[in-house]
Design a protein that fits this description.
mainly alpha; 81% helix
Amino acid sequence: MQKMKRIGYIFLIAIALSSCSQYQKVLNKGTVEEQYKMATDMYDAQKYGKAIQLFEKITPSYRGKPQMERIQYMVSDAYYQTKQYSLASYYFDRFTKNYPKSTKREEAAYLSAMSYYLDSPVFSLDQTSTHEALTAMQSFIDQYPESEKIADANIAIKELRHKLEKKAFETAKQYYHIEDYTASITSFDNLISDYLGTSFREEAMFYKLKASYELGMNSIAIKKEKRLKDAIKAYDRLKRNYPASEYINDADKLLKDLNNELATFTNTVATSANK
């Protein structure tokens, strides 16, 4: 029995080596037709890396020919299947432009958008790819409003927007933690206005209040009154929008300090004016 198993293993290894040898032979010395056939065979067998190598060799020979539409789609998909999403998005984009009447155009447009989506990095990194993914996904929705992929596209857009919102929120928080309160306030205002309905809105308002509090309480005299009043406005906005906020108790304490500081400052100014 063991002997039969060893013979079986040897046979499989021999087949694999023969297959590899045949691939190298066609890749390096085969005719264009042989390379095309093996490329499509490798693609169908999901051996995408080998398929890509062959497609790269034959592309110049098939440019302008009917087979090129199929080749370009398979190349795009091979990059997608091997998770080379930057290349996949580029080639799928080219496919949609080069073959506007193709039956594969809608699918290519969706996979192009998905490639951008899958190439989008974590929120803490540069979000250029995320913006590109949003544009591509929205473009797909606009072009194919009846597509069965619309629901998936909308989910992707929601996730991409959340990532941008989180990036903006964490950037504003970082300004707060390094005590650049002016930049923090501006960043929180931008977040709230740029992303209406963001899930970070309540917390952003509270952090804006905290940043405004710090700026007002530690301000120079010439700017103190305005900054204290701006902080009180930030409290009023939080209270008005989220009367049952989880942050309201802490906000109430900040408001008490602000009112006391404003009263003291106003009395000091009035006393100085009467002297």
